[in-house]
Inverse folding.
């Protein structure tokens, strides 16, 4: 089942949990259920369901002296093709400021033209 298909079958609580994990970029399970205002047992069930559906990752963690899980969003299948020119990544990625007169930028633009 794809992540998108799995998302359409979520309960309201699972959807809220997934949204929380994505908004925070990751959260400890011991905080997860508190943020959702559900019992720890209910929170564990929500995380388990999201994990089984491939929507979140979880790893063992220690938080405030207690064993717990760290719940993180699963990286989606991202399409970086719009940043590519041939096998070159855009020079704008990771740079503070790109000089449009630079060789790197010119070469990237030329590779864009050759792809068409």
């Amino acid at each position: 089942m794809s992540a998108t298909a799995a998302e359409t079958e979520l309960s309201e609580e699972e959807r809220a949990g997934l949204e929380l994990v994505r908004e925070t970029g990751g959260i400890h399970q011991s905080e997860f259920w508190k943020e959702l205002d559900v019992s720890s047992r209910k929170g564990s069930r929500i995380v388990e369901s999201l994990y089984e559906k491939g929507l979140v990752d979880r790893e063992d963690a220690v938080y405030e002296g207690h064993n717990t899980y760290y719940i993180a969003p699963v990286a989606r299948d991202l399409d970086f093709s719009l940043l590519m020119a041939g096998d070159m990544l855009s020079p704008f990625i990771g740079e503070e400021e790109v000089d449009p007169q630079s060789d790197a930028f010119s070469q990237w633009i030329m590779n864009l033209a050759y792809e068409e």
Observations:
- Residues 12-24 form the longest helix (13 residues).
- The chain has two domains: 3-73, 81-115.
